[in-house]
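Project standup — Tuesday

K.O.: blocked on the structure for the chain from last sprint. Re-posting the sequence here as requested.
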Amino acid sequence: MAWSLIHAGWMHYILAIINAHDWTMRYVTTFSTEIFSLLNSIIYFHKSIQELQRAHASLSFAAFLYAIIGAVGTMLLAIFLSTANSWKPLFHRYIRMGLTEYAAAISIIIFIAIPHVGELATLDKSTLTVSHSFRPTNEDRTVFFVRFWQLPVSWIFAAIIPGLIITVLFFFDHEVSSIICTIDRYGTKKPGGFAWDIVLLGTTTVLCGILGIPPANGLLPQAPLHSESLMHIERDDVKITVDGEEKTEIREIKRVYEQRWSAFLHAGAILIFVSPPFQRVLGLTPTSVLAGLFLFMGEQSLSVNPILYRFFYLLTPPSELPALPTAVGSYWGVHAYTISQIVLTTLIFVVTLTRGAPAFPVIIIALVPVRLLLMNRMWNRETLRFVDAWACREGTPEDSEDSRTSPEKAKEPNEGPGEPRGGLVVV
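H.V.: unblocked you, prediction finished:
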């Protein structure tokens, strides 16, 4: 594992040096990023179920039932507190902001304390395993670093392949999370430092390899969760024209506080709690609370995913659906697009449960040419223009294709929905 992560590290550096973001993500559309985001949500839900399965195997039945209550309670309380900004006029504004921004932390602290109260204190508990001394947790190791230089040369070169897969996964995960946490609804103004982020990610990946620990990377859904907690309302002067006369109107616009302190404090808190004696505090955390945190994080990621809302359209009577642009026609194409995303996400998740799991990032990347080269033969162009868009720039693939089309070809009549095109059926 050490050499795989070391190789992944220098590959990250190369991606940063050549500014890979500009010439890779420019071809990625929201079709792929939405699938990746949904996959992360499902994985979080699955990890929560796995934690509860372990609790079932190691605890008494009564303790297991409470573990379920603790997991679901942690999630529900966090979700409830995250809506505190809408409780106006209840409490002072700063109290509501504090409850919203620290919803998960407050919920975790409460459900860590509850099992130690009253008769619940007599139940057996499954808590996080932590170290109580400054030494490697693996009893077979006497030093913190891995003797990676002792590996045969042939294996060092063989480790390049898993290193490449890790790089693809981390790069795509970082890019997608960066896109999600800087979408228009957050009103960010400062440009993203994608190259520097990749350098930092490569450095931490190398350090994890040398220390012999799993690489620490998982930005979804923490990134949008962080952005949501920093949302606030600003009043902007907007110039509008009324009856030919230009007027200034004050509008309330939601934006995030763009600063460095919150990320710095998060990193500092993590550093504190992975060192003695604060690790003992982490050791009090029931695994059911961890399961509840996974549920909350999965829900937070899912709640901002457009796939969820288009899935609701599938369950909505046609008479209650919002009107579509005239060129789109009907919802059949939109529904087919949504179902295809859900099916592809399910297939990729199944792959992650098999021995072929390390290759799933390759499947994610393969979705990019599938969208650009195949789906435009299966869906009406206006439907794709309605449901999809470039992930990192304005417009859609169809807009870019139109801009490259000659004026003479642009004047040709468009094919109607349902007509065969390129040997496939347009929906």
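K.O.: great, moving the ticket to review. The first helix runs from residue 2 to 17. The radius of gyration is 25 Å.
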